[in-house]
Amino acid sequence: MALARTAGRAGAAAVLALLWLLVCAPGDAGCRLLTVADLFDRVIRHSGRIHSLSTALYAELEKHFPPRDNELGKPIRKCHTSGMLTPNGKEYAQKIPREELTHLILKLLQAWKEPLSHFNQHIEHHQELPDDSLSKAKQISNMVHELKTGVEKVTEKMQSMGIISNSLTGMASSEAAGLPISNEANMMSDSDFIHCFRRDSNKVQSYLKVLKCRIMPENTC
């Protein structure tokens, strides 16, 4: 039974990876592989949808669970990804080598996969929350998994074209897995947790846009 579930997950992951590379459903007439520019457009749009969902969910959670304040009356927020060195603003991101920026995007997405999964299980017990909020939380978790797969496909495409080196394979997963982040994430309030995710989802979208402009100079950065 466990083997069947594992095989099922592997098959679903393979289909998801294939769909990121196609402009249509597999088997359709005229189906073709996406260009690297098309792939970038897809992951950027996908990251934008994630950020919009997290913004809406944060507003809903803030109504039910206001953020805790410190002695100065400011919200207490220590995001579990705060230890990651991430550039603030477009001009700083543009100075980072392409491989490092790609690696950082993957690392941020990997760092949120497990905490989002735990968050979904936890938030289901809040009976006062509307079903729409629970649905948004589940969507976000699934879409982050999809986005990571999409960024991995962009990375593979760039590597095959010689745009970036092959040094990134497996690095983001192994590094993020070694970070002591899960306990910190679980200790945050629900609204603080989504606030932190919303902040990082905005970074991911911004870094993807910068990376696309860096690789394709015909685009206006």
Separation, N- and C-terminal Cα atoms: 50 Å
Order of helices and strands: HHHHHHHH
Characterize the overall form.
globular
The residue fraction in helices comes out at 55-70%
Number of strands: 0
Strand content: under 5%
Q: In DSSP terms, counting alpha (H) and pi (I) runs of 4 or more, how many helices?
A: 8
Low-confidence stretches: 1-11, 14-18
| Average pLDDT over all residues | 79
Question: What Rg do the Cα atoms give?
Answer: 18 Å
- Biggest beta-sheet profile: none
Based on helices, strands and strand pairing, what is the structural class?
mainly alpha
Summarize the structure.
By secondary structure, the protein is mainly α.
Comma- or semicolon-separated keywords:
mainly alpha; 221 residues; disordered N terminus
Structure description:
- This protein is mainly alpha-helical and 221 residues long.
- It contains eight helices and no strands.
- Helix 2 runs antiparallel to helix 5.
